[in-house]
Amino acid sequence: MIQNNQELEATLARIRHFQKQIEKLREVETNPQNYRLSAGGFLAEIDRMKLEVRAYLSIHPSELIE
């Protein structure tokens, strides 16, 4: 779980990186099935990280344990 704003920024940067990877994959992969198989792992990881971001942002800073 994300513990502080520095980790939040790193996670958001990682999400952006994975999204760019998928965008590139969409440009170069010609076979839809291969695309889905290749993009699936990235998409699952993006979903997981977005849940972590949501959990962190749902907690008030005074409730965080540093």
**Rg calculated over all Cα atoms:** 15 Å
Helix and strand sequence: HH
Total of DSSP H or I helical runs spanning 4+ residues = 2
Number of strands: 0
Structural class: mainly alpha
Tertiary shape: elongated
The biggest beta sheet reads:
none
Keywords:
single chain, 66 residues, mainly alpha, 2 helices, 0% strand
Polypeptide structure, described:
- With 66 residues, this protein is mainly alpha-helical.
- 76% of the residues lie in helices and 0% in strands.
- The chain contains two helices and no strands.
- The protein has helices spanning 5-28, 32-57.
- Helix 1 runs antiparallel to helix 2.
- It is elongated.
- The model has no long low-confidence stretch (mean pLDDT 95).
Brief sketch in words of this structure:
With 66 residues, this protein is mainly alpha-helical. 76% of the residues lie in helices and 0% in strands.
Describe the protein's topology.
Elements: H1 5-28, H2 32-57
